[in-house]
Amino acid sequence: MTTFVPEPHLLESPRGRAWPLLPGTAPLSPPTPTPPSTADAVVVGAGPAGLAVASALWHLGVHDIVLLDRDGRACGRFLDRIDTLKQRVLRSPYQHHPGVEGYRDCELLDFARLHWSRLTDTERREVRMAQSGHRSVVPVDVFEAYCRHVSALHHVDERIWRTTVRQVIPEGDQVTVRGAGFAVTAPYAILCLGEERKDAPAHWTDGAPLPEGVGYWDEPVPDSAESLVVVGAGLSAAHLISNGLAAGRRVHWILRADAERYQCADVNASFFRAEGRARFDGTSWADRQQLMGGQRRASVMFEFRPLLQQAEADGWLSVYRGRTVAGLEAAGVAGVAGAAGAGRAAVRLADGERITGDHVVLALGTSVSNGEALLPSWAAGTRDGWPDLDERTLAYRNAPRVLAVGAAAGMVLGPAARNIDGHRVATARVAATVAAGLEGGRLAGESLELTSTGHAAHPAEEAAVHA
Predict the structure, then answer these.
(1) Of 50, 140, 142, 408, which one has the fewest beta carbons inside 10 Å?
(2) Residue ranges of domains in the chain
(3) How confident is the model over 164-210, as pLDDT tens digits?
């Protein structure tokens, strides 16, 4: 079977272009320095998931919302991480975007076509590919401009406050969200917490802080580094490697798997469809764990393959496949001598070999933010790191006034829950549940009415029918 491998040039798109806002969508700032003390709903996190939730609530007539975000701008932290990696295109295709399910707003593909004159020839070809139903890559520049458009159009900007949330406290029919100098009480809170970087195992450093010369994927690589060691097998690692090669650095790549895994999407495409999500409906916890374990493996976009293979053949990239990391060390430690010890930091492998470089970057993936750090332990109800959520509403079973959108819903919606398109599916359920609860007093855990086909309908599906 012949596999089509896209060219690496698809990874490049201009960054920092000026994108005009459409008439009537000028962004506004919050009117007060601190959020109000009450609201109809509080959204914690203003990333792609939070933006989708706030926009969907706006369509459902829920306008009295408060968004609390550590960065203070829609998708700000998401985009900052992307720019740290110098990533120019998204892995998600044009069909995946933080728009609103069931409403015909201007979607991401529409937005790109509206700004056709600002696109490069390569970007235009990708738009045509998307229009034809084929896989395409989305420029980060287009995505950021679209997020600003969605945020302004749905009046999200004027409801975002920059702050750090410390506690989410469910109390009867209300939820209080607290932070430094503020407390907001609302009937509902929606946690859109995303994922946090996965730190190095404690035994790699004997419980001590990372040695000098070792950092993580979401931190800048020092300009002075002439050689780089990258630990990890995912997309972040691939960007770090390609950036290093472009800067003329020699790169060492350490991955635990026996071979690189190249894949278009971060999970199998079937999980983005209803039939894929149905594989999680009514199945056992063990079966769901097995499915998630098989789909959360690190992988790299196909576009990287020619670039990385050529660099390895030319000697600029050394790949250590099937190797296990045993520790991290500062350069000059015992056993590291001569040329091998010339770098500033070293990775010690399980077989005793040490790989050194001027800088070591750990790209170990991310872990789910399940709400446990904010909610009382009784409310989170976590199991194997996953929150206990109502499968119909994505509300915490022990705290039905608190709902989750994002990776935390993975054991309900499947691996696509962590993806932007998965956020839309989760948002449709959560926003409709909140709107229905505010309007009619129906709680998130109440039973759902049957549709005319005899299948249980999610509140989002009912809302879409009446929209």
Answers:
(1) 140
(2) 8-197+367-466, 202-263+299-364
(3) 999 999 999 999 999 989 999 999 999 999 999 999 999 999 999 99
